[in-house]
Amino acid sequence: MARTPIRKVSTLNVLVTGGAGFIGANLCRELASRPSVGKVVALDDLSTGFADNLTGVDAELVQGSILDADLLDGLVSGADAVVHLAARPSVPRSLADPVASHHVNATGTVNVLEACRRARIPVVAASSSSVYGAVPALPKHEDLPTRPLSPYAASKLATEAYVLAYGASFDLPVLAFRFFNVYGPLQPAGHAYAAVIPAFVDALLRGRPVRIFGDGLQTRDFTYVGTVVKVLADAVLRKVTCPGPVNLAFGTRVPVTDLSQQLADIVGVPADIRYEAARAGDVRHSQAADGLLRSLFPDVAQVPLARGLAETVGWFRTLPEYAAAPAGWPLPVEVG
């Protein structure tokens, strides 16, 4: 059967699944700022995203689920590219309900890919560094085996595998990124599944203990969301594809205890650290090899961790619940 050719347009209409979430809303803002982007549509069921994240962004929010195949078909038919970020995040959340993580992250991804296959629309999708799991080698390069340690990691490996399989099977233009500990403005705190940086900032600004699970010597490769969304936008606009996964991180490696001290210094308070038992499914060390990323995106510029953390704390201080806390006042994260 002859395939319908990919449409060629002067401006791109982009559908972002998970578009009201932390990364998704930042991406919608970045896309809307690009002259070569026409319409931006954010699809989100608002289970972990927030409509307020898109305030002031020239993007249309459609509340709905990637499990709704008919809705996806309608939205994809009006798009020229899809960035698939919708997922049920968090290792602990997947341990509490593995089936729900599978449905959203694996089955939902197949729904997105089927809609894109029918419409012949390119897909950029988010996988996770968690797929490396128990593999001890550092830095993590894309040719390493994968050994997921949690249902979440397994579901993201399924996401990635389906995306790449659709590229190979149906000649669909695809690109699958492995995200490494993305942080920055709009990342929520104040809930049981909060990621490490917002959890730490929340604790420090409220004068509460910083909870570290394990000995604190576990390391992470943190990537500022502003850098991530620039890469995603460039991938869409330049129609970058790759037959294998691509790490989206820069090879930094920071112990969690050091991270807590850096944040305490920025907030201006001492860190009252409380060590707790290590959590099931947590990876010991994470560090990306970035050679493939830099070959595909030679102009990418990494935001240094110190600057990214300062901008993140600054954003937290704009929120009503933290705005009353002057610098240096122990008013304040649970480690993810």
What does this structure look like?
By secondary structure, the chain is an alpha/beta fold. The protein folds into two domains: 12-182 and 223-248, NAD(P)-binding Rossmann-like Domain (Rossmann fold, 3-Layer(aba) Sandwich), CATH 3.40.50; 183-221 and 252-323, UDP-galactose 4-epimerase, domain 1, CATH 3.90.25.10. It is 38% helix and 16% strand. It has helices spanning 22-32, 69-76, 91-96, 98-119, 151-170, 196-206, 225-238, 256-267, 291-296, 305-316, 320-323, and strands at 12-17, 37-44, 60-63, 81-84, 123-128, 174-179, 182-183, 210-213, 219-220, 223-224, 246-248, 254-255, 273-276. Helix 2 packs parallel to helix 4 and helix 6 (196-206) crosses helix 8. The protein is globular, with a radius of gyration of 19 Å. Mean pLDDT is 92; it is low at 329-336.
